Sequence to fold (446 residues):
Amino acid sequence: MCPAVEGASSSSKEASPSSSTIEIPAPGAAARSWFVEVQDDEGAQRSPLSATAKLIVGTSPQADIVVRDPTVSARHCALTVLGPGVAIEDLGSRNGTYVGGARVLAASAGIGTVVTIGRSSLVVFPADAGGVSDPARGGPSDAAGAPGPPLAGIAGASLAMRRLADQVRRLARHALPVLVAGESGTGKELIARALHGEGPRRSRPFIAINVTALPRELVESELFGHERGAFTGAHARREGAFSEADGGTLFLDEIGDLPIEAQPKLLRALDGYEVRRVGAAGGGQRADVRVVAATHTRLEQRVARGEFRRDLFHRLECLVVTVPPLRERRGDIGAIARDLLGPLVREMGPRVLTPAALGRLCAHDWPGNVRELRNVLCRAVDATPTGSRIEAEHIDRALRRDAPAVAKCMTSQRAQELLRESSGNLSAAARAAGMPRTSFRKLLGA
Fold:
């Protein structure tokens, strides 16, 4: 990617497209068929790019690619296929065209390049990347071959997330266990809830257990229940998570942390045999529960170290859903950011992301994924007055992790939510908040 960055002078802004640098492929470079994926205020669309014509992107009904976003100009930018790449040209837009966090007059784009215009994003990719068919070459058309709509309640309508949505809908019909894999902060619990909500068990309970947050000595009791007097402190009989989720779905987050001594009982339950409470005499009861487990670690490595049973691993990994990290679906960042800003502005007053700020967000790699994105937005909101615009410099400062700002924008309500998400584990909730344990405890009492 070789952008021509807009300078500070007015003459730079008025420069013609020909005066800006566009990386032109060498003569004879192989041409490819390209598509552009557009996410705007009303969802997502995928459009083929012409190898022979300049396509205009904007809000005008006469534009070749119509974007539904009032912050986008009528004729905002143009896209032209040039051999192995796509040329991007700003057409004097009001709010600018951004590539890699920089405002550009012209740039060349490669696979996965994100172009930010207004509140919307464009991602370019070749038709032969990721299994996208090219109708001109005899493949299925967009209507026939493209994936279905995104999952309800999950922001982002990129090609990757719509393919994931199709997989979730397909697997939701079954009762077999599913392993949801993905990096920390990618939203694996949301996918587990979608597997429940899209299937025949949707009217039955969804019970979520964070295995990491359970005291080691109480794991079996939490999962399978216990009889009165089964151990010190067992003053009454308790139904476990399997009983609570009867007929529904049991979500086991961070399954890799399940103690080795509890794993045979889970395997027995998954194999369709009985679940027996701790301290119970005789037989137990059959579990009518669909188990969805999640992990951010490679379970194969835990198996090799003797920390996870191989038979349980193979039982869980029969059906696997992998949630892509945010850096692999940058086109979703704008939609996710707007979704995350909603509760923040209700707590702290209205704020608006500028196109430059959104461009900065799309350029970041997000090792902490959606959880990190939320924290950055929280710090950026804290750094700007109520009713103002979040600019690129606010995002830059927020990415540098100003610790006092973390505490300022971590509300008591959000702290309570994190504590619930961590199944009552104070240390785990404090780590998720990025705060010391003592400070987090004080916030809970506010």
